[in-house]
Amino acid sequence: MSVIRLQTVGSFSAMHPFQCVLRARRCLRRGPLASVSWLLLRTCRAHSSVPSFACPSPQRQQEDGVWKDFSSRLATGPTFQDFLRSASVPPEQPSSSEVEDPPPYLTVDELLGRQRRVYLETYGCQMNVNDTEIAWSILQKSGYLRTSNLQEADVILLVTCSIREKAEQTIWNRLHQLKSLKSKRLRSRVPLRIGILGCMAERLKEEILNREKMVDILAGPDAYRDLPRLLAVAESGQQAANVLLSLDETYADVMPVQTSPSATSAFVSIMRGCDNMCSYCIVPFTRGRERSRPVASILEEVRKLSEQGLKEVTLLGQNVNSFRDNSEVQFNNAVSTNLSRGFSTNYKAKQGGLRFAHLLDQVSRIDPEMRIRFTSPHPKDFPDEVLQLIRERDNICKQIHLPAQSGSSRVLEAMRRGYSREAYVELIHHIRESIPGVSLSSDFIAGFCGETEEDHLQTVSLLREVQYNIGFLFAYSMRQKTRAYHRLKDDIPEEVKLRRLEELITVFREEATKANKSFVGCTQLVLVEGPSKRSAADLCGRNDGNLKVIFADVEMEDATDSGLRVRAQPGDYVLVKITSASSQTLKGHVLCKTTLKDSTAYC
């Protein structure tokens, strides 16, 4: 039996009534949903132009006293605007365990975790880290407990990545390892349940269940609210799955639970999905269409993180700087923001809503001592107002991720990136003029469909010309469903891809070393993260440009408390004079403990 939960009614409110009828019919074909019938009825009442097939005729209303009474009560009830207004600010989360109304085939008790222990493993990008925190928040409210010990787990959930074939192979290998753990489970214990969450579940769907019978549940990126039900169904010995994508799910009302209690930073998801449809990318097919959280819910989450003492937040989204909050009706007529010069989109221009510059401005005002980062942006969405904010606000990091993917205009066109090499380089110059000292990072793909040796050399030359501080470079991996899969040929031999990738990595390291050596002799503000992985005598942190900084764990002056000498702790801001640099790391000696505000006099 399939059960579909309608997350909000906001998506119906903006529709023509005929669209409401069609969507409701599609939902009803998937499974019984009384709320759709009610919602369709309420929408029909609001539109006098709806023909008789969509709403009962006046004659029938007069004949049916029950209908007349019901319709009169509906007329005085809440409208769609009431739901939209209430959706803009998330409700306070109750502290006690709570469960939504169960489907008819389950009881409330069956939806409860009953102290079962959950072990979570996260693979892939920062969005998956945030998804793990969302999934755990939902399970915690249903009475599950968290464990870091695989052997004592009753439920093992893998939050997966599908961006490249290698990422998926890692999960298949992990499932093979877990198979023995499940088969050796003592009969005196509750059966071990294993679940696949996230992008791989969304991409492969039933293939996972058919290939690995030991997998009990699948949950796509928009189905985490359904985890308690899926686990309850699995308890009966059946496999359970929900891989439906949503047009409006943002988990705005779910406060993620930090998976690392000692963390000094956190990820805050501000939007989900992507509309760019780059020809190589699987993301639109695994995470759905682009939709943004209400600004109010984001600000509330950042405030709570500040109150918890965290010193850095990273705003997350697949296309983070195309953020557009349309939940506030009064802003829906605002003009669209201009794209970066020379850039275009693969979709029709969007109008209205509160844009990324507004959100970045509001977030940066919450706590002047909290660093603000954002990732991953698209180069097309960098209007001057965003660059100006980064330059002016001390707590917005002077670091921009600017994915290029290739240095060849011909390959960029095949990738459907919406810009040429020349437009990209012009944007680089504009950013560096607007934000002096900015650190840049980028993504590159080696061996995309049809890439010639000349195309590859153009990418090499772009790496030399720009001199990125940080780089993420990969060999191309064709993904099913993408435009490249259907229209292009993966014609570059694997050995050629790997050779080109190695050449790109070598050039990147050479140029990054040159760029990072400019920090030698300078004083950098560093947010301390904890001990260095390579030496217990050293500490590790990151500077404003997101470069790793290593320094000795020694006593230093506390500039915030004159005369006091202290050792740096995770979450402290310290000043470090840089003495050496490599392509990935800066090293130096610590000067003093300080604050973000006071550090501007030194850096």
UniProtKB/TrEMBL annotation:
NCBIfam families assigned: miaB-methiolase, MiaB/RimO family radical SAM methylthiotransferase
An annotated GO BP: positive regulation of translational fidelity
Enzyme's top EC category: transferase
Cited InterPro entries: Elp3/MiaA/NifB-like_rSAM, Methylthiotransferase, Methylthiotransferase_CS, Methylthiotransferase_N, Methylthiotransferase_N_sf, MiaB_methiolase, rSAM, rSAM_horseshoe
Region forming the signal peptide: none
Cofactor: [4Fe-4S] cluster
Protein name: Mitochondrial tRNA methylthiotransferase CDK5RAP1
Stretches assigned to the Radical SAM core domain: 260-514
Every TRAM domain range: 517-592
One Pfam family named in its UniProt record: UPF0004
Catalysed reaction equations from the record: N(6)-dimethylallyladenosine(37) in tRNA + (sulfur carrier)-SH + AH2 + 2 S-adenosyl-L-methionine = 2-methylsulfanyl-N(6)-dimethylallyladenosine(37) in tRNA + (sulfur carrier)-H + 5'-deoxyadenosine + L-methionine + A + S-adenosyl-L-homocysteine + 2 H(+)
This enzyme's EC code(s): 2.8.4.3
Sequence similarity: Belongs to the methylthiotransferase family. MiaB subfamily.
Domain MTTase N-terminal positions: 116-236
Record keywords: 4Fe-4S, Iron, Iron-sulfur, Metal-binding, S-adenosyl-L-methionine
Gene3D superfamilies: Methylthiotransferase, N-terminal domain (3.40.50.12160), tm_1862 like domain (3.80.30.20)
Molecular function in Gene Ontology: 4 iron, 4 sulfur cluster binding; metal ion binding; tRNA-2-methylthio-N(6)-dimethylallyladenosine(37) synthase activity
A GO CC term attached to the entry: nucleoplasm
Organism expressing this protein natively: Bos mutus (wild yak)
